[in-house]
Design goal:
The protein is mainly α and 162 residues long. 54% of the residues lie in helices and 9% in strands. The chain contains eight helices and three strands; from the N terminus they run αβααββααααα. The chain has helices spanning 8-20, 25-31, 39-51, 72-87, 92-101, 107-111, 133-139, 145-161, and strands at residues 22-23, 55-60, 63-68. A three-stranded antiparallel beta sheet has the order 1-3-2. It is elongated and about 100 Å long. 7% of the residues are buried.
Length: 162
Amino acid sequence: MKINHLTAAEENLMKLLWKLDSFYLKDVMEQHPEPKPHQNTVSTYVKILVEKGYLSTEKQGRIFKYSVVVPLEEYKKFLIKELSLNFFNDSGKEILEFLFNEKMISQEDLKGYFDLKIEIKPVKVKAKEPEFEFANEILNPKKDKKKEKDKDKKKKKKKDLK
């Protein structure tokens, strides 16, 4: 679902509409806090919100019933992603640092979020022989030194040929 930007006035009206979820124009007028805007103004904004895809309409006789199409949570995600992309190099870490530096979030606030249970699974790693030469030397001290020298010479020849 593509979400479009809202003006400040549209956003303020949507805050009320998200609470109502499904409504008639008269419901909006009743629920709107003082000072109440003119009904034509509200009607115009509702029409714009329908065009932007935030509301849907259902004709019931001579009036319309409106329903919210874009949930508040989806709009919040949209805003945070836009903010992150445009001002924080698309980095959640930078947003978190900013909130922390501006004292909008505290270490206490973060404690519960970072007490995560992470399951660590062992990973099989193929080790190269040279990594264990020193260990083999300690574990097998009686190895023939001549064999080791021959191996070193072969390795050196291979490197020289490359």
